């Protein structure tokens, strides 16, 4: 199928911006040839990153002239091989759009031919890394909405990836395959409603997460690795010794802790800025949500609203303390990998913004009161916290009596252990306070967690099964966990540590008829035969 005349969908500059590549007599289109240049640039940058420490290592033992004589040809050879291989890939990659199918053929020795029925296409996502943006290219991922398992190998087998095409061509393909209106001359699309926009003030929530410490640890590890490359692995020890002699051990510890946190804050701010700059959540005509974001690497994710089964309001402890939350969508066709941000509709933002986005997407009313769980659920959490505290107390006793650690570090570790013991008890109480469940119209609501509190609003009609579980400890406390299974999102959403009788009635009410074959009803009372109560089988 040849590309439609631009005059049929737009005119003037807009038409020029959406022009597709030239087609052959059978309607096959080629990827953009600048993709070979993109590959060359990336391989050169990576090769250069390895060449610098290699040159230093070889030059330290011989001379830098000899090192360059080996490293420079090696870099040229690696870049040339990568460019040639990518040229072959580009030369033997073709795609076309027919009235009924989207087809992709690639490969020279081992040829791969894949096609998708256009009626099954649900997502057309665009992304561009910094080098692709310089050349005006985007990578287009075309999928059917097939779910990818958590921890899977990335792209679904039902996803066609065009790497890469001109940005205008990518927008044209998206409009064609999703039957969307073309982009106007001013860059806007008719009928598009913006549900949320990026606010730089939201960056203040980014450091309030575990990633602040994780990224700081990565930075420290990277520093040690670089020093090892250059044979200066003893430098941190020497600097630490000098600082201790200058200002004292306690001040040095506080100084290094402050620097560690500062590095983590800067890194987290940088990552958040790159990931969510220019963020927009849009609702397009025809029932599609589109998330656009990115500073260096731009991303555009499409979510068909017919496949949305609810939303999840996530409140990590630090973010929650600042009155903020993020919103994830519960839908089929997106990765269920917790590390993936494909399902995030809204980054960490004020709770009022999160509530408005959740209401606009799913039509829910966040913030309602939920049914409380039995007090035995709190006792259970406190018991586990106290058991962990007993272990910490044993560690502290060992540090005080038999540890070979110096007195200063023994005191530091003792203070940390005591702080952890108190924190565990506080978190246990907070975890119980977070528990709750209820029915809100067409949605099942379940909340749990303390370090990561999450409230899911799951469409009752999207629940396809129940899983009932009860450990030995739960049975003694009269508690039970009821898990709703669905084809969307994480696929399993649980009401944990609820009353064993009440939660079964709750499940039967949420999805009438689904639990009935597994419940035993008491024999009706003679005076009131219409009354029946659920009990555990």
From TrEMBL:
Q: Where is the composition biased (Low complexity)?
A: 7-22
Q: Which UniProt keywords apply?
A: Membrane, Transmembrane, Transmembrane helix
**Record domain YdbS-like PH: where:** 90-147, 439-502
Q: Where is this region: Disordered?
A: 1-22
Which InterPro entries does the UniProt record give?
Answer: UCP026631 (IPR014529), YdbS-like_PH (IPR005182)
Q: Which residues cross the membrane?
A: 38-58, 64-88, 210-231, 251-273, 382-402, 408-429
PANTHER family xref list: UPF0699 TRANSMEMBRANE PROTEIN YDBS, UPF0699 TRANSMEMBRANE PROTEIN YDBT
* Protein name listed in UniProt: YdbS-like PH domain-containing protein
Q: What's the source species for this entry?
A: Jiangella aurantiaca
């Amino acid at each position: 199928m040849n590309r439609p005349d631009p005059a049929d969908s737009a005119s003037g500059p807009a038409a020029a911006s959406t022009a597709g590549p030239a087609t052959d007599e059978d309607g096959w289109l080629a990827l953009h040839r600048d993709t070979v240049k993109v590959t060359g640039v990336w391989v050169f940058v990576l090769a250069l990153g390895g060449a610098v420490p290699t040159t230093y290592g070889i030059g330290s033992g011989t001379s830098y002239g000899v090192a360059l004589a080996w490293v420079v040809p090696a870099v040229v050879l690696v870049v040339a091989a990568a460019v040639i291989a990518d040229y072959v890939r580009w030369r033997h990659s073709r795609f076309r759009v027919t009235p009924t199918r989207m087809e992709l053929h690639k490969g020279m020795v081992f040829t791969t031919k894949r096609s998708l029925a256009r009626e099954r296409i649900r997502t057309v996502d665009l992304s561009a890394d910094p080098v692709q943006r310089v050349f005006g290219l985007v990578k287009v991922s075309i999928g059917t909405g097939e779910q990818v398992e958590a921890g899977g190998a990335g792209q679904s087998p039902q996803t066609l990836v065009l790497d890469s095409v001109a940005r205008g061509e990518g927008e044209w393909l998206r409009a064609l395959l999703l039957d969307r209106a073309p982009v106007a001359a001013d860059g806007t699309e008719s009928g598009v409603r913006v549900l949320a926009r990026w606010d730089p003030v939201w960056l203040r929530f980014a450091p309030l997460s575990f990633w602040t410490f994780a990224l700081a640890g990565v930075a420290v590890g990277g520093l040690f690795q670089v020093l090892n490359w250059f044979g200066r692995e003893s430098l941190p020890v020497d600097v630490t010794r000098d600082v201790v002699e200058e200002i004292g051990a306690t001040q040095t510890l506080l100084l290094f802790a402050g620097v560690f946190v500062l590095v983590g804050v800067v890194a987290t701010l940088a990552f958040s800025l790159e990931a969510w700059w220019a963020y927009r959540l849009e609702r397009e005509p025809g029932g599609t949500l589109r998330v656009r974001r990115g500073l260096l690497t731009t991303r555009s994710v499409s979510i068909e609203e017919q496949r949305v089964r609810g939303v999840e309001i996530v409140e990590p402890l630090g973010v929650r303390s600042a009155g903020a939350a993020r919103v994830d969508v519960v839908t089929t066709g997106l990765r269920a990998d917790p590390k993936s941000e494909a399902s995030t509709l809204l980054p960490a933002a004020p709770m009022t913004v999160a509530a408005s986005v959740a209401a606009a997407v799913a039509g829910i009313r966040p913030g309602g009161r939920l049914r409380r769980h039995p007090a035995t659920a709190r006792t259970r959490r406190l018991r586990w916290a106290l058991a962990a505290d007993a272990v910490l107390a044993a560690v502290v006793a060992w540090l005080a009596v038999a540890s070979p650690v110096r007195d200063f570090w023994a005191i530091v570790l003792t203070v940390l252990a005591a702080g952890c013991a108190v924190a565990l008890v506080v978190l246990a109480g907070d975890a119980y306070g977070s528990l709750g469940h209820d029915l809100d119209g067409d949605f099942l609501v379940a909340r749990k967690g303390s370090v990561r509190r999450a409230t899911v609003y799951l469409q009752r009609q999207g629940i396809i099964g129940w899983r009932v579980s009860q450990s030995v400890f739960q049975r003694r406390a009269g508690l039970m966990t009821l898990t709703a299974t669905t084809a969307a999102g994480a696929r399993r959403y649980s009401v944990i540590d609820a009353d064993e009788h009440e939660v079964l009635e709750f499940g039967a009410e949420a999805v009438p008829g689904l639990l009935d074959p597994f419940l035993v009803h008491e024999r009706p009372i003679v005076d009131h035969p219409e009354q029946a109560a659920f009990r555990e089988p």
